[in-house]
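Form 7-S
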Amino acid sequence: MSRAEVTVLGAGVFGLSVAWACVQRGAKVRVIDPNGVAAGSSGGVVGALAPHTPERWEDKKQFQLESLLMAADFWRVVEEASGLTTGYARLGRVQPILNDAGLALARLRTEDAKSLWNGAAEWRVEAVSGDWCPASPTGQVVFDTLSARLHPRQSCLALAGAIEARGGEIVRAGAQEGAVVHATGVDGLAAMTAQHTREVGNGVKGQAALLEYDASGLPQLFFDGVHVVPHSDGTVAIGSTSERYFDAPASTDALLDDVHARAVAGVPLLGGAKIVARWAGVRPRSRTRAPMMGKHPFEDGTFVVNGGFKIGFGMAPKIGQVMADLVLDGVDNIPADFQANTCL
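Output:
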């Protein structure tokens, strides 16, 4: 590869999405990650692309809506370019409604979704139906048609394959040439904190598991703090914990056992399913909980994208587009709350 026009540091979903957007615009791109593709939290197993509630609208929710609506085309093109599957499908999400107050709120959100989601998706109240549905004290559930799922690690591998198929380069070491984008997750947050007067962000450990159970055409479920996500390969992901303080970042423990127990209690169909994988990783969370984007506040002449936390994969299509606008064209379409300096 001749001299890179863009160098992306980090091969998680944010770094790869920015690199892919730049490659699609004809830029020569090098992605550098000493640990390889999806070595951090982007190598997880859950992959729930779920929207925020349709109420109290703000830039973050609008940005997420636009990104979730971009996702089907985004991942389809990635699959076509790479020849690899991402496991993407927009099959919706079911959530039980626990009491009368929750039922009234759900009905209000149904009306809000009609205007806020501009008819692109629905948030509706339905009666409990079938075995693939957690128990609901009211007999009613929320079903939203905006939620989707994908397999996180497979998606990153497909992104990497698409980048390379279009002439980009993914290496473990190399020269930082052209515009440099820092997409280094937890390590990047720590580095910025070391240069600042307070914590810029932190890592939050998550634990999840894959069960051998084929529910591939069914919606994801969310109940009792647990995501249950059917994947296209005949597995079901359950997760995850949110641990601000932890000793063993890559180890699973009794907290995951509790998640599994809650998943089985809510969906007894999963009771006999074999656990085929247990996963733990540390997700980057900015101080403001918003994705952190734009000009790097401490590295002159470079850019940063970080803080995906629990919504990184859902935000990635739009983030790649907006960061490419900035890096390649100097056009700043980043929402004010996402600006890197605002997140400090």
